[in-house]
Amino acid sequence: GENVEQHPSTLSVQEGDSAVIKCTYSDSASNYFPWYKQELGKRPQLIIDIRSNVGEKKDQRIAVTLNKTAKHFSLHITETQPEDSAVYFCAASTGTALIFGKGTTLSVSS
Amino acid sequence: GAVVSQHPSRVICKSGTSVKIECRSLDFQATTMFWYRQFPKKSLMLMATSNEGSKATYEQGVEKDKFLINHASLTLSTLTVTSAHPEDSSFYICSAPPGMSTEAFFGQGTRLTVV
Questions:
Q1: What distance in Å separates residue B83's CA from the closest CA in chain A?
Q2: Exposure string (b/e) for B66-81, b if CB count within 10 Å is 16 or more?
Q3: Rounded Cα gap, residues B60 and B39, in angstroms
């Protein structure tokens, strides 16, 4: 089955810096790659997603890139703000269940 | 967007009792629902896939007799934790699968505490 690896597990940046979180997946049939932000005890909140027919997608300060050949995708957050501090999860899906990475705790200090 | 409603949001039960968690799709029909478990500071782990009209499929290591899943209709999937023990205390959350152009929709999650 699918296996998703996520790095780093923790990331500390200064306000205004960029943050990059990387994920790799194992199942070449995966075609949907969402990124979530999750607050403690709450459901995951989708922040951006990308499908396998696209190499990059951007939404304001957030962008995701996908390299199907290498089977990895990355989340890029520019001009980070303290409110970006949260736990972020990547996931991969073949159209069925989402398989999640282990998560990254992002801390943005002002 | 589509709404998945999960209840209860929090439940405390005594060891040995059973707890039922419901997940309803409010404005769409879900032939499939996924159930995840999340321990504190950990990721969401897929437990099982609920299929309307057929048996659920369980991930390796998940006890099907302990975590009973029923998909009685196109709008309701339930997870029953039987003979709960403190180690079953966790955050349980359901999700409908992503569509060709839609995201996966999650329930609100259920915080189960077994005392």
A1: 24
A2: ebbbbbeeebbbbbeb
A3: 17
In angstroms, the separation between the Cα of residue A56 and the nearest Cα of chain B is: 16
How much is the average pLDDT of A65-89?
A: 97
Question: What does the block give as tokens for B86?
Answer: 């403190």
Structure tokens at B22: 């419901």
Inspect the interface and report whether the beta carbons of A44 and B106 lie closer than 8 Å. Answer: yes
B88-102 pLDDT, tens per residue?
Answer: 999 999 999 998 888
C-alpha to C-alpha distance for A64 and B78, rounded to whole angstroms: 34
Query: What would the pLDDT profile of B41-99 be if each residue is shown by its tens digit?
Result: 999 999 999 999 899 999 999 999 999 999 989 999 999 999 999 999 999 999 999 98
> For residue B1, is pLDDT > 80?
no
What are B44's strand-pairing partners?
B38
The Cα B67–Cα B87 span in angstroms is 13
Contact A97 B34 (CB under 8 A): yes
What is the distance between the terminal CA atoms of chain A, rounded to a whole angstrom? 41
Write the residue in B44, B91, B97 that is nearest to A100 by C-beta. Answer: B44
Asked if A1 and A99 touch (Cβ cutoff 8 Å), the reply is yes
Beta carbons of B46 and B97 less than 8 angstroms apart: no
**Which residue, A97, A76, A90, A79, is CA-closest to A37?**
A90
